[in-house]
Amino acid sequence: MCGIFAYAGTENAAPLLIDGLRAVEYRGYDSAGISVIDSSGAIKTIKRGDHKASLENLSSEVSGGELAGVVGIGHTRWATHGLVNQQNSHPHESISGVVSIAHNGIIENFIELKDELVDTGVQFKSETDSEVLAHLVGHSVASGTSLREAVIGASSRIKGNTAVVAVSTAEPDIVVGLRIGNAGGIVVGKNDHAAVMASDTIALLPYTSEVIYLEPGEVVEIRKDGVQLFDLEGSSISRDAVVTVQNFEAAQKGNHPHFMSKEIAEEPDAVQAAMRGRADFANGTISLPEISLTLDQIRSIDRVILTGMGTSMHTGMFGASVIESIARIPSVCENSSELRYRNPVLNSKTLVIAMTQSGETADTLAAIEYARQAGALQGVILEMEGSQATRVADFTLGVKAGQEICVASTKTMIASMMTLLELAVFLGQARGVIDANRVKEIVSQMAELPSLISTALDLNDEITALADRLCKYEDLLYLGRGAQLPMALEGALKMKEIAYIHAEGNPAGEMKHGMNALLGPGMATIVCAPQNDLYPKMLSNISEVKARGGEVIAIVSENDETIERVADHVIRVPECPELLQPFVTLIPLQILAYRTALALDRDPDKPRNLAKTVTVE
Length: 617
Ligand code: AGP
Prior knowledge:
The chain has 3 domains: 253 residues, Glutamine Phosphoribosylpyrophosphate, subunit 1, domain 1 (4-Layer Sandwich), CATH 3.60.20.10; 184 residues, Glucose-6-phosphate isomerase like protein, domain 1 (Rossmann fold); 145 residues, 3-Layer(aba) Sandwich (Rossmann fold), CATH 3.40.50. The protein contains 17 helices and 27 strands. Strands 3-2-4-1-10-9-11-15 form an 8-stranded antiparallel sheet, covered by helices on one side. A 7-stranded antiparallel sheet has the order 5-6-7-8-12-13-14. 2-deoxy-2-amino glucitol-6-phosphate binds next to helix 9.
């Protein structure tokens, strides 16, 4: 949540700050602002709180070039405290104007700190928690403390996870960055003319591909000719930069109108990438060298708990179903914000697997940390290399989908599902519950998946027509059973997230236990019903919806000959083995949400009130 970018170099900082903010805007687009140390040594701040238009408006405002200076900080905001408006936008200056800060995180004790500052005569300009940091740092700097020590001192007074960058008129050549806990990372890089830092590596790529990830409890000073890391006691830290695999071009929209359409179109490649180096199609084997658990540890596992939030939780639900059915280990998926607080019984025979695209989700990181402290085995399946989650578990499996920018997750989900399928096979084989022939059979089925997904992507036009129908509804119901249930839940989440239509995902068998009371012409139902053992039961559920006057869209296998007799609209996905069916039903669900959002004139890349990374609870 919130994007930070900072620059110290030889060029005019303002346009570079805007470019940097564009790269991290997906983290929050409620407001945008920059502070630059101008040629007279004073801090000049410009900010806009115009919702999704903030960064564009800010860009136009600074394009005149009157904001001259070579050191500065910028911020894109996802609002937590205070309305979306100009006053609450970052950066925040201290009252004396000697300091400006941009902050990511929540200051849990800000009321107490604010009262204390107000008692000393400080007049707050915003309703944000972050402004207390500006004044705490400003007070120290005004009394002669260095910017670095002032930032460390201020952060020691606050409760909660924090990432902050600060500039000061007293040291106009530097920017200080600090990270406490897991409120989003800070990545640092430099070239011959400048040093930069940001919330995400992608913003650094125009400067360098060699980056340093700040760990919690570390501080950094950047200046035009270098970068220096410190701990909170002020001791210097030496750390080599690592070469990132992220690619700037890959994170651009290209010819697509939205990141979401681009990322959906990339799904065949994402699945392929998740198999590369792991699935050996010639020999029909799966290898996961990243899994460092011993054979004894793997054989001792008596329970798997997958955990995550939102789409990642739905992915985990799919994972629980394949791990249980293939590796025969009792498996469940649980929401991380519940798991972390319910004092679960975990031990060294429990494998807890965190699912996360960003690797930064606060609840998911807390759940895996809980698992670590409880002595459970821990794994992380994630997209973002270098994120905090890569450093917390016994093993990390990258899903390799390539950077996902759109807030609504699509390609990461499908690549993570493939990774989970590989994990299920790997565990099953290591535990001796599936033989080499079964592995071969699964691997040969997996080989077909990219082309099956490509075929499902061709459904775009017919789904567009259905999206026009769905626009008129205020309520939608999504139904599935077995491994189709997480897909139904995901279809509903996507529709809520980007089309803003109330949508509920339900196990189809649950209908008679309450949901049926809502059926009628006012609610359309989307049913995931490919050919499998549960298909006859899904047909009955569809008939029940129809009997009560509801419109039904059924997502079924290509050769289904019965469905037209019961459903109003049919989306046919390619025939495939049952194991792969969730992959192919997911595609039309994502496209349906995307097309409905467009039909309702919503921007699918910038859903209201949401951010790509949720670094606070
Ligand atoms: C998905 O479309 C959402 N953006 C959201 O539910 C997301 O999956 C959730 O916030 C978890 O994020 P993570 O995968 O980065 O941990």
